[in-house]
Design a protein that fits this description.
580 residues, alpha/beta
């Protein structure tokens, strides 16, 4: 018989590697074929402590006794068919006693469920009180599979001890490979969770940055903690208008990372601290390692480089790693701001009349202390290109990322502080979708809406959008052009004035300059306002194209050319070859 080693099935390799890295070694295995690749692999590894039990019901209770006595995690392994059903009573016992037992039920491809295939049963739903978490792990074929399955298995193993702990289930897919030729087990990426009271990892050397997604308002003490952290580690805070951070280390990076013929080296980060929620800034980051800090403690791996999750308030994290007695450094910040100032200086005044030109003229002029609500995608993108005052707080509906409630969110926020100005920038489709709230009797005089009316969803006509390939035909169904009066110059005017709004409009740059001072007047006037600006989708697209090509470098041009020739998939293949 040939010498056997680890299975060639990558999902099984990931599980075994992470079991070892998480310090989990006790296994109670039951006989079978579907779990053969897993059991036969760990049989070859003397690190594991294995036990056999023919009866899965007995195996589960053996694991209960072993876990309770040792205080350590115990793994169960069974085959397909009804074997896993016999774990239910033992896992119920473990659930109510919070015993850390990992039930690994091996399975065929779940697409076979319901097709009269022998030994295929449906484990996709489990009872409420037998496990804390159930993860299905499919076969690993692609890099995307590798990433997803690595996170799933880490999440499952961490849950065994999380918040008191308890049993967890992994439904592990097999292809019954007979290849056991892998002598050296490839190491999978380990993700650790750190809670308050536990030992923090040493802070790594190298370039450090914080990235803030959409974020609730920072308390003054939280902002101070972030600033002290940045000063200690010569770090910066990459953010967009929805990040809510107003400290001195803010770097609004969107315009630099959007460049098509240049590569922004600022995003090559050794350690990225990820806080906040979903960002609509689409800011490309290239971190080697990511630490996520959030009280939810969830494994959210946006950049596929996550190694630690800190389940704690952000302030606790930043205060731990800050040294208020050291010299506060701003070297990296100075480099970032120099690059930003240089690219902003390149934005031409001849930019076409568009949302981007309006943002260029308006963002920095919003009255201090006011609040800004931005529509998703085209509006958020173009306004993120330019800085606003720190004293202006901004929001966007990036949670669900739909157009259906942008104006209502603006109005709702404005009711909280009637003495503060609330500005909203919104496209015509989103405005008409949500226009009923404009007539709500609670709307106050502190509301000002900047309506960018181009007669369609101009996002779908922008040169870099797939819809642009269809030209004018895209307006029919993709960009939904021609609705709502098809850029009527009287429809919104009558609607607004009949509802008691002050109505302003502009068709070109000169007209906009004439009315914008009135729109931005810092005092609350006797009526809410709507400023309707009529733009063209061709100008909108051209303005973004100009901004996206302000910086040009040889490497950036090579990347752009390669992308055009090879496509995204080809670029990834080339990167893989170069890395090897």
């Amino acid at each position: 018989m040939n010498q056997k080693y680890y299975t060639a099935e990558r999902s099984v390799q990931i599980l075994i590697s992470l079991l070892k890295q998480h310090g989990i070694k006790r296994i109670v295995a039951s006989p079978g074929t579907t779990n053969l690749t897993f059991v036969a692999s760990i049989m070859q590894d003397s690190w594991f402590e294995m036990y056999s039990s023919v009866d899965e019901r007995s195996a589960a209770y053996m694991a209960c006794g072993m876990a309770a006595e040792s205080g350590e995690v115990v793994v169960l392994s069974c085959t397909g068919a009804t074997a896993s059903r016999n774990y239910v009573s033992g896992l119920t016992e473990a659930y109510y006693r919070k015993l850390p037992i990992l039930a690994v039920t091996s399975t065929q491809d779940i697409n076979r469920i319901g097709h009269l295939i022998p030994q295929v049963i449906d484990r996709r739903v489990v009872q409420n009180d037998i496990v804390l978490l159930s993860e299905h792990v499919p076969v690993t074929f692609t890099d995307a599979d590798e990433w997803s399955n690595t996170v799933k298995i880490n999440r499952a193993l961490l849950e065994l001890r999380h918040r008191g702990g308890g049993p967890v289930h992994i439904n592990l897919t097999t292809i019954y490979s007979r290849d056991f030729s892998i002598k050296n087990l490839p190491q999978a990426r380990l993700i650790r969770r750190i809670c308050l009271g536990e030992e923090f990892p040493p802070f790594p050397k190298g370039r450090t940055a914080i990235f803030v997604g959409a974020h609730l308002k920072f308390a003054e003490s939280e902002k101070k903690a972030v600033d002290n952290f940045c000063g200690t580690h010569d770090a910066v805070v990459f953010c967009d208008h929805t990040s809510g951070y107003e400290g001195k280390y803010a770097v609004p990076l969107s315009i630099l990372t959007s460049q098509e013929q240049d590569i922004c080296s600022l995003v090559n980060i050794d350690l990225l601290i990820h806080i906040g929620e979903i960002s609509g800034g689409y800011i490309t980051m290239c971190p080697k390692t990511v630490w996520r800090v959030n009280p939810d403690g969830e494994l959210k791996d946006s950049y596929q480089r996550l190694t630690h999750v800190f389940e704690m308030p952000e302030q606790s994290f930043f205060e731990h790693y800050a040294d208020t007695n050291c010299i506060q450094r701003t070297d990296f910040l100075d480099i970032c701001m120099e690059e930003l100032r240089a690219i902003w200086a390149k934005v031409p005044e001849t930019l076409p009349f568009s949302n981007a030109w309006i943002a260029l003229q308006t963002a920095h002029r919003l009255p201090a202390g006011s609040v800004l609500h931005l529509g998703i995608l085209n509006t958020l993108r173009t306004w993120n290109f330019f800085a606003k005052k720190n004293e202006v707080y901004a929001y966007s509906n990036t949670g669900g990322f739909g157009i259906d409630g942008n104006v209502s969110s603006l109005v709702g926020a404005s009711l909280v502080n009637p003495n503060r100005l609330y500005f909203g920038v919104i496209g015509d489709l989103a405005f008409f979708y949500d226009m009923n709230v404009v007539g709500n009797r609670h709307v106050g005089n502190n509301v000002r809406i900047l309506l960018i009316n181009n007669g369609k969803g101009t996002e779908f006509r922008n040169y870099m959008h797939p819809g642009a390939a269809f030209g004018e035909e895209a307006d029919t169904f993709i960009a939904a052009g021609g609705h709502y009066g098809n850029k009527s110059h009287v429809l919104i005017k009558h609607y607004a004035e009949d509802l008691g709004y002050e109505y302003l409009s502009a068709n070109n740059k000169d007209e906009y300059v004439q009315v914008v001072d009135r729109f931005l007047i810092p005092e609350i006037t006797d009526r809410p306002m709507i400023l309707e600006v009529f733009t063209d989708n061709t100008d909108e697209s051209e303005a973004i194209r100009i901004i996206n090509n302000l910086n040009v470098s040889t490497t950036g041009m090579m990347r752009s050319a390669a992308k055009e020739i090879l496509g995204e998939k080809g670029i990834k293949i080339v990167k893989k070859i170069l890395n090897k």
